[in-house]
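>> received
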Amino acid sequence: MATATTSVESPDEDTGRLENASKLRVTLIILAIVASTEIVPFHFTFIGLTARYIGQSFPDQSAGQLTWLTTLYSLVGGVAVPVFGKLSDLVGKKKVILFCLLLSIIGCAIDAMTSSWTLMLIGRGLQGLAFPAIFVSYGLIRDLAPRRYLNMAIALAGGGTGVGAILGPLIGGVLTDHYSWRSLFWFCVIWTVVTILPLALLVPETKLRAKVKIDLLGALLLGAGIAGVLIYLSNGSTWGWGELSALSWLIGGVILLVLFYAWELFTPEPIMDPKLLRAPRFGGILIAAFLSVGIMQGLSYAMGYLAETPGGAEGDAIKKQIVDGAAAQAAQQASEQMHIQVPPSMVTQYFSVGGTLPGFNLTLLQFTMQTMLGLAVVYVLIAPLCGWMSTRIGLLKPYLASTVAFLVGCLLFAKFHDHVWQMALIALVIGVGAGAYLGTLPNMVVEAVPQEQQGISAGMYGAFNSFGTAAATAAVAAIMSANPLILHINAPGHVEDRKLNTGPMAQLPDGAAYTNIFYLFAGAAAVAFVLALVLLRFYNRPSTGATAH
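>> returned
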């Protein structure tokens, strides 16, 4: 049986904790860490802004190829998180964060300058290596922050990603309106260079080291297993969920993860203690992260699609264009067969489009200002509040509130998504759920795991965040593809219903798609609520600031 050796004798070993530091110094250190890792939400937001512009610069690449700009980032980040998390336990968390950010600078610079698609993907992969920095930063804060500030500090780090969520579309909208898509990557270079300096100069390195060797085979099995699952989740809707070529990635990934667990049981120095993976106290957190992140990312994706899809008069105009186009094509075919000129107006009556387009035809900037801004502001405020409250009422009660907010918000969205003001008000409820989640789950990881395994545990937490994001995006894509608009043909001798699919996701989904999506995530929130009740016995007491394990 595996028995990992470590230099850490007890939870009270000196980690370099700044117990006697002034509140100003602690605040500056936390802000420096949060600001430097804020680049990750920019990476996610900017690629959504620039995909169509990048496609114009690489006309030989299909829409499917362009999706790799997102998939590759999540794939590299998801694989790197647990590996870099373990490395941070060995060499120091600040060093790993700096290394990750430096690699991301190189990746952004490559994408800002290249005209090669291969180099574009390489640059995007290097940017994905910034993803582990967020989760390693939780461990660094855990080692440095005074106990009395620890829960609020980690909650602030979790909620701090809302700043990028707010600023990303605003900055991206301004830059893409006045400059090319390359300016967004240059912005990422400048942001990282500016914020990495305070991190390097103001933030001390943790003194904690786990004196073990890196389990290279375990890291390889874990990374390859995560990669297989993420590739399936990210591309299943394009390849076909039941196709053997797609399932082979999922099956292979699961087999590798099982082999990873088996290897960890017997190797003398495992990359992660198998007992942690079996413990409900920690395993429950991973499942909760998968569900909650999936709900947040899935709702964000669906809300953005709903906001930017033409609806109302614009939607009716699109449906008329579809009918006119189908009628014109049918008239041309009839003219060729009958050798007389058949006007489209004679056959238009045989075509109609079934379904509704409930979209709002907003630009990304309008969507951000009218809907997402309020959501982000709410969760940036709620997250540190929940961190403060956890020292008085425990971590589970705020997380229970998070699942209830998600459940209520999703059910409201399912019933009311016909107006922008409805979406904006309900988004505030989702913001409460997101803030309570970000203010509690990272702290639960700190509470659940011995300090010598903070890096790898945060890495596993990050990997399940990636799983949740990929699964939610795939679920939204699958539901939209299953609920497209329908072109009804009811001509003499020819009755047909034709799905109006355009690519891997129906770009003109019927309104029922959104209702089904919101109900799906309401179901996920209900499961998360039940899970929270199960976890209640572990986290019902006031948070200890990770003093007890």
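>> Residues 1-12, 502-506 have pLDDT under 50 and may be disordered.
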